[in-house]
Amino acid sequence: MLLAMQLIKKSNLQIQIIALAVGYESASKFTAAFKKRFGKQPSQFR
């Protein structure tokens, strides 16, 4: 999840691509897990 955070902040990759890169099958599952961990949706960190 920390890798995902770094990719969100430092790259222009789509959230869906980042989700796949860190092992999630869908962007919605990734977004839910990310929000539970960090308290915000991935798009709010851009």
From TrEMBL:
SUPFAM superfamilies the UniProt entry points to: Homeodomain-like (SSF46689)
UniProt xrefs under InterPro entries: Homeodomain-like_sf, HTH_AraC, PchR_regulatory_protein, Tscrpt_reg_AraC-type_HTH
PROSITE patterns referenced in this protein's UniProt entry, alphabetically: HTH_ARAC_FAMILY_2
Family matches, as Pfam families: HTH_18
HTH araC/xylS-type domain residues: 1-46
A GO molecular-function descriptor: DNA-binding transcription factor activity
Keyword tags: DNA-binding, Transcription, Transcription regulation
Domain of life where this protein originates: Bacteria
Protein name per Swiss-Prot or TrEMBL: HTH araC/xylS-type domain-containing protein
